Amino acid sequence: MSAPAMSILRAPTPQAWVATAIGRWRELLVDHANCEKKAASTALALMFAYPEDHALAMALSRLAREELRHFEQVQKMMISLGVDFERQQPGRYASGLRTALRTSEPGRKLDLLLAGALIEARSSERFRLLSSRLQPPLADFYAQLERSEARHFELYVNLARAAAPDRWRERLDTLAQREAELATGPDTVFRFHSGPPL
Length: 198
Fold this sequence. Notes:
The chain is mostly helical. Helices cover 71% and strands 0% of the residues. It has eight helices and no strands. It is globular.
């Protein structure tokens, strides 16, 4: 696990997931495109939910634009590698993490920011694992994205720290445990953030 990601993730990605991802990289790339769209959508949703937080709005506006640029890059990579887009059944990861989040304030904002941090940290870790095992040009692309995702998770952590200076760390510990269960437990659907397939 990379040093930045290790600071908040509670368990490394299982090698069984990595082995599957190498063999099913085409399927993974399709889900990756969907993940970039979801990441942009999450940033925009937070901007709409908390318009009074000017620092958050500015930071997440930039983040949403970057996530959309990543989506465009994934689309170009798919075209160059001959990977067709196809609709996929959603995995359990995001919905499973969402069930652990509080739905009312004052805890909702903190939980949404911490969930964003955990998802970006897991992405960074998995891009690192894949970049050393796949062939160019995908390996080079994922190495570049590892660094971007690390910046993104640090941004979410900083926003969470600003939102709840005295409570963010304790709450992160709780959510990180749930994230680790979802990312490492056996999964019926193979996705970028899934556990190893059954």
